[in-house]
Structures are given as C-alpha cells and as structure tokens.
Specification:
alpha/beta, Rossmann fold, 7 strands, 43% helix
Amino acid sequence: MSIAGRRILYTGAAGGLGLPTTLAFLERGAHVIAVDHDPAKLAALSDAAQGNDRLTVLATDLADLNGWRAALAGVGEIDVVINNAAIYPSKPFEDYTIAEHQAVQRVNVDAGIVAVQVALLGMKTRGWGRIVNIASVTMYGGWALLSPYVASKGALLGLTRAWAREFGPHGITVNAVSPGAFPTDAEAIHPDPEGYARSVLDHQAVKRRGSPADIAAALAFLVSDEAGFITGQTLNVDGGWIMQ
C-alpha cells in the first residue's frame, strides 16, 4: 500500500500497539513523527528503529494543549494524523470527579482536535490528507468502570463522521479504527487478566488474540492512496468480537 514518503503524525506511538505499528510504517517508507509522553518508551522506539532517519520522536504531555500546539509548530508538513494516545482510569462512575472526566477528554479527544487543526491547512492546500481516530470496541459494549474513556471514544466516532463530511471536498478522508482486546499493558487494569483473556476468546469469532500486525495492516490501508474512497467509517479490528 502506497504510504512511502508520507509524513505521519502518530500520538501514543511508543506504546504497546503504537511501537510495532510505527516500525511497520517505517518499513513501508513513511516518515513518522512519533509522539509519546514517556521519554523511556520513545528511547526504546528509537532503539528498535535502529537509527532510521525517517523517525522523529517528540516527547510531550498532551494534557497541556497549548504546549502540544506549540510543539507541533516545529514538525513540518503533516500528511496523516493518527490520534491514538489515550488514558483510561478505571473505577466506579460515582468516584470520578468532573476534573477527572475532563482530564480524560483532554488527552483522548481535545489533543486530537489540536493535531487536526494544525495539520488541516496543509492537507487542504495539497488536496490530500488522511486522519484516523483510534476508538475502541468499549464504546459499543459500554464497559463498566471506564465511563470517561468510553465517552471519549464515542466523541472520537462523532468527530470522525463530522470531519469526514466537512473535509471530504478537500481530498481528505477521516476514518476510525476500533481495536478489540490486545495483550498489551492496557490489560493490566483487569483484576483477572487470564480470565479476561479466556472471555475474549470465547466471544471472538477468530479464536486467537490480536497482534499489533493486525492494527498496522488496517492503519496502513486507511492512510494509503488505495483507501481514498473510504471515509466516515469505523473499522473494528477485533476478531469478530463486536459485530457492529
């Protein structure tokens, strides 16, 4: 798929699904601006990329929206935005403060809005752009204890459709990918990880756990030239767990 030479802004790029996907983009010839809040994870990504000069790492706190916008001023042209970074606190709904709800929204949604605002003019000028919002199957299932996270992913799906309608005349597509359950650090929030894994396999149509390669393939397609007639859609990459 034709992504060679494209400049991809990828938030949460050094995490459990982000790092392997970033490496896959580099292998396909893209330039990746990898954003993460954890310098140690970015260092591990740089090591894994083995000095690839098409990788730019950017350590920043997406919760600081003004600082995030300022950081983006120095990255140059952006052809593709992948809004992947997210935080996911877990506790009963009544125990969340409004400030905690807003903190999740700020990182999971508002930081993506800032990224798209910064990239949009260049995309319009060039008549080409790709935006992918990383949602979650939890939005469909309404997972308990994750209400701010679930709400933020619902917001991303709404933005996906609104942006697709508004940006389409400029040659810009906007889609979402909803990953299912992948064996990453995110599963550590579950009190019984082994039981959770068994439950996932019971519900999936495909009887194996997902791998980063599954997400990388979906993203590489959606940001390619070949996907230019697909917009406003949500692709569930979940082994047939949530058939929506």
